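Q: What does the assembly look like in three dimensions?
Context provided by user:
Components: two
Sequences:
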Amino acid sequence: MAYNTNTYFVLFLPAAMILYQLTPKKYRFMSLLAASIAFFMIISRQLIYWALITTAITYFGGICIEDIFGKAKLQISDAKAKGIEIDKKGIKKAAEKKASHVVKLAIVGVVAILAGLKYTNFTIEIINSVFKSSDLHALKILVPIGISFYSMQAIGYLLDVYWKRIEAERNILKLLLFMIFFPTLMEGPICRWTDVNEQLFEGKPITGDSFVQGFIRIVWGLFKRMLIADRLNTAVNIFYKPTNSYNGLMMFIAMLATTIQLYMEFSGTIDIVIGSARIFNIKLPENFRQPFFAKSAAEFWRRWHISLGTWFKNYIFYPVSTSHIMKKWNKFGRKHAGKYVTTVVTSAIALFPVWMLNGLWHGPKVPYIMYGVYYFVILLLEVMLEPAGEKFWNSLRFDINGKFVSAFRMVRTWVIILVGEVLFRAETLGQFATMMKNMFRGPWDGGFFAGRILEVGLDIGDFAVVLLGMFVVFAVDVRLEKNPEMFENIPKLPTARRWVIYYALIMSIVIFGAYGVGYQPADLIYAGF
Amino acid sequence: MKKTAKNILFFVILALLLVLPGTMMTSKFMERNHLANGKNGVHAKLACEHKNSLDVIVIGDSESYTSVSPMQIWKDYGFTTYAAGQPGAKLTESKSVLRTALKNQKPKVVMLETNNLFRFEAKKNETQDFISRKIYKSLPLLKEHNVWKSPFMELRGKTFKGFSISTKVKPYKGGDYMVRTSKRMKIEQTNIDTLHDIEEMCRENGAQLVLYSAPSPKNYNYKKHNALVALSKKEGLKYVDLNMKLDELNIDWSKDTRDKGDHLNCSGAEKTTAYIGKYLVKNFNLGFTQDRTTALRWDKLLNNYDKRFDKAKFKVEENKNNKEVAFLSKLKDFYK
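A: Here is the predicted structure of the complete assembly.
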């Protein structure tokens, strides 16, 4: 039961809403938990025990860490009250050490489950290919839904407790709800405890406003998915069929279709997710912020899959770049190698684990890992070439923040994104290499003008809808860039304008949506990660 | 109070928008206004055929309606056939087409083109399916929402009882594709289950089910042939593999295919239809239709068909010699 199915909209969501509304305020989080468990079990059945184990590790880990710090604090305050001289620093240090052992152990536990379920067969595959004599058989492992998402949340929670940013939750049911809250289970956004904890447990009733806010967001998500993503799905599947080969302009169109389809599918699903939670008066963090307006790859990752980027920034990049050893290097580097070299080396060391893990997180596939490597190289190059770039534009007397340079940088970023998404979508590195090579192979139009474009499962009407839909999404993205609260403000518009927007969106989905006979809705791509 | 009334009004207007257009979308309205197009269109078209006027119904994917021309069979043998295939149809979709046909028709023979027996179909989620059916039944607008495509589809030209005359030529140059082997392609159990449903429907309606494979180097090989021979034996069904009769049919891959051996064009279809017509007469009790009104209607359509078909055959020869086709003429051809 994915978020874009009629079972979700006609049965599950209304049932969850009724259950929530009928429950007394204090226990409403329990009805959300019941709905989330039901959602989990409908998809992954008894595999929910893996989520329960991860939650238990996270729960006891968090409490244990807090107790260690609490005891140390108590020891110090007791001694102070009794006027006894003690080694405060020593006690704190010992507690710190003990807590660090606990947090490491808990994280190892969470990661071991994730890695065991997701990467065992990939490891076997690598061992078999490296050691030709090895003949290990792949294991039949069923992976529970959302494991990559809730494991990240668990690790973030544990580290936040360890860094004393949050207090450990004492009610395991509340922690379980945070981990498997049904709207975020399949595709995120990856939430931090502080993003949602109060809202999840507050038990605010569903109101007319919350319903409308949620509804409009869901409809917008369906618009993106059903008009564009589901329609392009047919073409993209044909483009990537191993037996098919495209070149020149047709390959470029394949590249564009891949990127647009992925954006519309993922951001559309996130709109449905955010809208679903909004109905229950829970505001989830945004996961997209008009990514194609980015002027660099670094900025793109601050606008695309924001929650993943933020997680890596908070829990990998910052800890690495502010670690003791890096501080030492910074000091040494600035003195002996200069600011530029120090910045580049620091960035390289901090970015490397981020992008290797980012690639691996997406799944046990070589192209995913190379996708991580690709962005590591691109981001490092951006750091390295930034001063040269500034010099270059200055020498041409262009304003670096002016329209021309911004447009140039935006187009350059699109090229980076387009190539990256083909790598991301390709089944093998070989397929990616062939596709890239074919783009520069003649004839330049790849048969486009001979009608090959009409052989990818879409007719002229479909292409017209895709283009019109993209235009609407672009116009809305432009508005959102200026007014990020646009969706929240729609219900405040005059009735006539508001109703026209609602009816136009609903009717365009009903009439132009790619559903029913002849269409195959796109799978939730990120639900597979 | 005012807010509640406003909310009610909003939903009333929405309901009207969703329900009203649907009430007009009857099969007759769709067919009369040339809106019955695309994959769904065949349902409306079949529903508009005169009651019990069809002797043979051909179901399957695009291989079916590109290999059987009902008008040619009518001309040669005088019984009525309908090519009720759908592009890219899965077997369950063909079953659904047959269900529509059997509501109104009592065919003597149902022919199933076998290509979609090899098309993978994930097991359907029954709840999901049930909800879809209920929604489509109460809101026909949703079921027929693709009618907006009709102006584009209409450009593709008229179909003759499901068969459209294609003059495109894109030769197949791959050589012999039916290379003997003892291997057998697997047919998914879900498809076998659906075939059983189709057999049951035919039995209940007194129709005989025949399996046939249209010539198609892109879709057939010997492994599939073996699988289909074994399946037809097991099920006690008649099976004709036209891929094994290419010489007898005189298929010329340099001019009889419109897309490098995926589908036949009108020249190829003329050959396969001639064989199928003869086969049907020989094996089943099919003869000249006794119903005068049906005969008059079909004869009228045949007139039109003949004129177009003669031109089309000339065009095929022309296209065979035309290697480079410009975009515009190609596009025109696609929609004609």
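Follow-up: Chain B has a mean pLDDT of 86.
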